[in-house]
Amino acid sequence: MVDGNAMTGLMQGKRGLVMGVANDHSIAWGIARVLHEHGAELAFTYQGANFERRVRPLAESVGAKIILPADVQDDASLDAVFAAIEAEWGEMDFLIHAIAYSDKKELTGRFAETTRANFLNSLDISCFSLVDLSRRAMPLMKKGGSIVTLSFLGAHRVMPNYNVMGVAKAALEASVRYLANDLGPQGVRVNAISPGPMRTLAGSAVGSARRVYKQVEANAPMRANAALEHVGGAALFLCSDYGASTTGDVIYVDGGYHVLGMAQPENI
To answer: Where does the record place a coiled coil (predicted)?
Structure first.
């Protein structure tokens, strides 16, 4: 048996930035909580006053000293975030990128009806932001590090009402591979975690979210949806020294649903 006490402290002495927490049900918060439990020192960003009211108490509950506004489409705000991290820490060890957006009205109906404006905006926020943030984080990862983003099965298969987000996640996963190759010589690893459907604020924006959640729960080999701590555990592996040789990969945390070709016999 594994001694649970021997597994604590995996992130002791490591510092990193978590971007994309919306509330205490966010996947980003689930990741942050697990990393903190294992000794990581965390910085957080939020977008706007509404999110600050939710994010700041959570960040303060894990002892965060750096809690700053950030808009991935505003270079000045990102400059300020990384300048603050450099001033406070001097360097960083990991970046959690949990940022995605699409107009909710276009996450119902047909993908063919996607507008040019929403397509470009969705790809900018959901995919290019990883490239931009990785470029900014890289100089601060002086001893190597880990960059982790979040994807979804809709990057590879058609999921109900996921629409342009599926295209954005496919581009995101391709970006993970190219970034992994670019940053590998510096000792920086880049990976994605692909959770199953989860009851989050972001997930609720997708039409038919509840039906998808129930479908996965009924048919996944584990007959269960993943919990936040399961995603946090995957991130812990990727950000800790145990993940030192894993890069350019997509880690599925979905109870095995991604391996299926069709529904379980009892559900056909």
So the answer is: none
